[in-house]
Design goal:
By secondary structure, the chain is α/β, with parallel strands linked by helices. The chain has one domain (5-123): 2-Layer Sandwich (Transcription Regulator spoIIAA), CATH 3.30.750.24. 38% of the residues lie in helices and 29% in strands. It contains three helices and six strands; from the N terminus they run βββαβαβαβ. The chain has helices spanning 35-51, 68-86, 102-113; strands at residues 5-6, 14-18, 23-30, 57-66, 91-97, 119-123. A six-stranded mixed sheet has the order 1-2-3-4-5-6, covered by helices on one side. α1 (35-51) packs parallel to α2 (68-86). The termini are far apart. The model has no long low-confidence stretch (mean pLDDT 95).
């Protein structure tokens, strides 16, 4: 499977996947005109990764703002991780936020409430 390297735009996050590292990273705002179209390749990549082997998968998020349809697409991604976790697959989310933007913590925490896999929310130290 080819790794994704989707440049950020004014309304979409930068997305990078690394098959060998078991890593999906997203950085920026997400309010595209069509979130499902934007996230389609990301979801397909995650599905393909989870369908092969038993290597861990980690989502590293630095998302700042998400519109309603982006939230739904992210919920679909977390559902994939939840299903994999229920089957014993090691998965985790690390959501980093700017300490000056506490509302991101609230958003991340709402997602975390529905997840049983490891889900860390931490200030971004970079």
């Amino acid at each position: 499977m080819n790794d994704l390297d989707i440049p950020a735009s004014q309304s979409t996050p930068y997305v990078s996947t690394r098959w060998e590292a078991g890593l999906v990273s997203m950085t920026g705002d997400s309010y595209p005109e069509n979130s499902f179209e934007f996230f389609r390749d990301v979801i397909a990549w995650i599905e393909a990764y989870l369908a092969q082997g038993d290597m861990p998968l980690r989502l590293e998020l630095r998302l700042v703002y998400m519109n309603t349809s982006s939230v739904k697409a992210m919920m679909d991604i977390f559902d994939l991780l939840e299903a994999a976790h229920a089957k014993g697959r090691p998965v985790r989310v690390d959501w980093f936020y700017d300490p000056r933007n506490e509302r991101v913590v609230d958003l991340a925490d709402e997602f975390r409430e529905d997840c049983s896999f490891p889900f860390e929310i931490a200030p971004d130290g970079r």
